[in-house]
Amino acid sequence: MPHAAEETTARATSGPAATFSRGRRWLLFALFFAICCGLGYPSLNRVDWRQAGGLADVSAYADLVTSPPTPDLAQHMQFRILVPYLARPIYRMARGRIGTWDPIMFGLLVVDSFFTAWTALLLVTVVNCQLGSYAVALGSALLFLLNFAVPNLRLAGFVDAGEAFFLMLLVWMLFEHRYWMLPIAGILGATAKESFVPFLMVFTLAWWLSSRKLLRHPLPAATWMVGSWLAALATLAILQWRITHVFRSPLRFGLEMHGNTAYLAHFLSSFRDRNFWYIFFWLLPLGLFRLNRLPRNWRIATAATCATAFALDAYYGGEPGTIGRALFSIAGPLLSASAALLLFTRPPATPTAAIM
Predict the structure, then answer these.
(1) Which of 47, 185, 256, 317 is the most exposed place for a label (fewest CB within 10 A)?
(2) 171-176 contacts at long range (C-beta below 8 A, 24 or more positions apart)
(3) What is the mean pLDDT of the chain?
């Protein structure tokens, strides 16, 4: 629980937060994991996302499950090794033993479900701690898991589940002041997806700037944050060197990702993308009503990182659906918590009219 002097917002509901026993945490994780496996079941033998339009990235990740990455500087998806490499032993154990299920997609589904379930559990933990309402905390996870992005994108063979987990882990670590863990998250998050590195830098910087006056020890916190940046950048450079046998600085790698010049047109096209609205058409309006009752540092850091995602997408020229996936990883937990505040908080009692 954060120190009272470092809290940036009052609790949304009265009363102490429900305590989480270790057994309760594992029960929730098992429940969330089972839900995710069920939501992602179509990828096993009903829908081959590798052949589906708009999900071509899945084919690249599926290849990483069965074979090592190729030393091709132009293929940046081969550096996103965390989810495919974790899926590899599961694929090998499942091959020839799971009937009609696709063993490659089974491995990816298990790993994606693992990361998504942990994301939901961290969301429950953070919301319960900050707002003191177990009902709102569980409602946040429910809304998060039932979003279009989870069954259709998180659990369809992409690697975004890994990046989203580490972004939610950042929120938990910052609220709990576990700054020493930030470099570990930076290293592992960089292997999940390269976009995590700038997201990490912007999110932690915005968090520190909005919280520094309330922190007891702002300088050590800033030191660990900068250390996580350096660890993530070094991981990115070493990972690419190990795969391609060519050293490229993260700056050079970022400059080579430039693939668009019509920045404004691309930005506006993001709002015409149906995948964007599938994710946010109900989450965004419901999430805005109670957003001001959530911690200010979480809101500011999320807004700054969302702006960064738009800038990077315009710079790179991402395919339709790219920005929606990134924004859900960044803002999905916060908006789900805000929407749960609206939907799962008991309304104030209405005085009974006097009987004449």
Answers:
(1) 256
(2) 171/122, 171/126, 171/298, 171/333, 172/122, 172/125, 172/126, 174/204, 174/207, 174/297, 175/2, 175/126, 175/129, 175/130, 175/295, 175/298, 176/2
(3) 88
